[in-house]
Amino acid sequence: MLVAPQIAITLIFFFLPAGQALYQSVLMQDAFGLTTEFVGLENFRTLFSDPHYLASFRVTVVFSVLVAGLGLSIALLLAVCADRVIRAASGYKTLLIWPYAVAPAIAGVLWLFMFNPTLGVVAHGLRALGYEWNFLLNGPQAVALIVMAAVWKQISYNFVFFLAGLQAIPRSLIEAAAIDGAGPMRRFWTVIFPLLSPTTFFLLVVNIVYAFFDTFAIVDATTQGGPGQDTNILVYKVYHDGFKAMDFGGSAAQSVVLMVIVIGLTVVQFRFIERRVNY
Amino acid sequence: MLRKSVLAAALAVGAYAQPALAQSEVQWWHSMSGALGDWVNGLAQGFNDSQKQCKVVPTYKGAYDVSMTAAIAAHRAGNSPHILQVFEVGTATMMNAKGAVVPVTEVLTKGGYKFDPKVYVPAVTGYYTAPNGQMMSYPLNSSTTVFYFNKDAFRRAGLDPNKPPKTWPEVALAAAKLKTSGEKCPFTTSWQGWTQLESFSTWHNTEFATKNNGFGGPSARLTFNSPLHVRHIENLANMSKQGLFVYKGRGNSADAPFYSGECAMLTASSSAYGNIKKNAKFEFGISTLPYYPDVPGTPQNTVIGGASLWVMAGKKEPEYKCVADFFNYLSRPEIQAKSHQETGYLPVTMAAYELTRKSGFYDKNPGTDVPVQQMIVKTTDKSRGVRLGNFVQVRTIVDEELENVWAGKKSPKQGLDEAVARGNEQLERFERTAK
């Protein structure tokens, strides 16, 4: 009985939409829902016979690995540094946590302003250095732009958890290692990093989910999937087809695929990576 | 004393509330922000002040695609607005939503007004007319594609600022001269699919899609990989390689580099006029869209863009009467003419055009009649407009493939073939839902 509210929330906000997505994904419908045709798995067949959809997988994998990898390593570096700071520590921490309060779309626009080939400050600087910056036609540059925006936004979140993790490590362990003659690098890799592993694992899962689901607003505000389809990540395609183009069946099928992928990834992570985590 | 004043107040409230009770409220969802938002609110205010039975309530519901999605969700939930502004891209979707919308002709005739198609500008209303001659939606704000150029940059390059290039070969020559004079971005374009393929097709009286560009029903298929289209995209790709054409992004993102002075020539919507006039710190001119003079029947007319007002189904009779009154109010020549002059959108009725011409507005603002001139000719089956289902996806596909061409990843022929093949898959999907 005590968990009933929790279960009700989960049912209404998680299972009901997921069920609806499943139901929609086997239908073909016009925008107003006036004609509905049951088409079975046809929406899925169309998707997987489309080479552009498959290319979108590759983009998404590159994007997610970059976002999760960079986001975690930069945040860890910052957290280790902030952990050592003694003066004005809370000031640093507040500033580092700040970007998390920024909505993804706003983060996208911020970075777009800096890197806009026409108006951007950074684009201007790059050109002065002789580097031709034009993400409108250069795919890798466009990917770099959305990765930067997505990572920047997620660093704060990772930072908070890493910092908490670091502060939970007993000082005595580190001091013992220091007395045994281990240098700072060695202390970090043999003592601190293994003890942080539960945090790192948790953040890895969260970051992958973030990169897969939460980043469409950044793409929408900056590249809209272009140039060509170089930044057309799966979740942006779901958003575009569903909310801009109103192809609900196709969009629902895509979101089901995405759901399956994330469930799969999470299971893999729990089964294989969690074994190496020391609690 | 006190009792008296209370009584007076009650009477006053009663007298005031009486007409308000009989008043019908009409909800109007639109996508006009900034100066255009003020314009829309002004229209509603003007109508509300002109009579007592009806009250039109305009609400800004986000950009075109957002407000359309919102309205569709509202319709599914059973509380759609009375009037919805839908961009031209959504026209085929709305037309196929039988039962969700009421044709404007029907609303007007039931409201006691005579519907005479002859008073309207044919290229404008033709686009929103069903095969049976019924006008489906009210063309509130229609725009078309025009060519803008920076007169100061022309002077610096030794070009005649009063002789803008009329044809594509002339554009390339002018661009080369502009580049030599130090311009970094001689030519760019907004809405590349709309200006360089859709409007390009009607302007050259060439099919963009079969079935009269989709007017003949949902079984239309794309044809914009014809030799003429390939030739044009090849031309632009060559200009891009030589730095004569610089790609500035999707949608209208090329407008800003033009009025900031970075780009010297631009093809864009006629409705960009207001922004350009407000922001440009140089003298600019408007001219007709360039064409290839060796193509027979060129120039024909440019394609329509912008948005129209759709009336949603399932409302009460007196409310529909109000909608009819409101549309009738909007059609008044003086209201139309004022809207046209204020916004740069096309006039909807011939009378409004005549009124504006007689007032001397076009002489005082040279170039503002270009979009009208491009549109008031008699249209052909190939030039009436492009009305396709899943058009949002088709436009995105065109954007993607053209970007591949500009980036040199695909040849113009490959890019267009691919865009047609992918676009046709979308049209096939639409055809199946549009039975």
Gyration radius of chain B, rounded: 24 Å
Largest binding interface between chains = A-B, 34 and 40 residues
Q: What percentage of residues of chain A falls in helices of 4 or more residues? A: over 70%
| Approximate helicity band of chain B | 40-55%
Task: Please write the CATH class name of the largest domain in chain B.
Answer: Alpha Beta
* Pattern of helices and strands of chain B: HEHEHEHEHHEHHEHHHHEHEEHHHHHHH
Number of domains of chain B: 2
What is the structural class of chain B?
Answer: alpha/beta
Total of helices of chain B: 20
Query: What would you give as the CATH superfamily of chain A?
Result: MetI-like
Strand count, sense and barrel status of the largest sheet of chain B are: 9 strands, mixed
Topology diagram in text:
The complex is a heterodimer of chains A (279) and B (435).
Chain A: H1 4-24, E1 27-29, E2 36-38, H2 42-48, H3 51-84, H4 89-97, H5 104-115, H6 121-128, H7 139-167, H8 171-179, H9 184-213, H10 216-222, H11 234-244, H12 248-273
Antiparallel strand pairs in A: 1-2
Chain B: H1 2-22, E1 24-30, H2 34-50, E2 54-60, H3 64-77, E3 83-87, H4 91-95, E4 101-102, H5 104-110, H6 122-125, E5 138-150, H7 151-156, H8 168-180, E6 185-189, H9 192-203, H10 210-213, H11 227-241, H12 255-259, E7 263-269, H13 273-279, E8 284-287, E9 304-312, H14 317-331, H15 333-343, H16 350-358, H17 361-364, H18 370-375, H19 391-406, H20 412-433
Parallel strand pairs in B: 1-2, 1-3, 6-7
Antiparallel strand pairs in B: 3-9, 4-9, 5-7, 5-8, 5-9
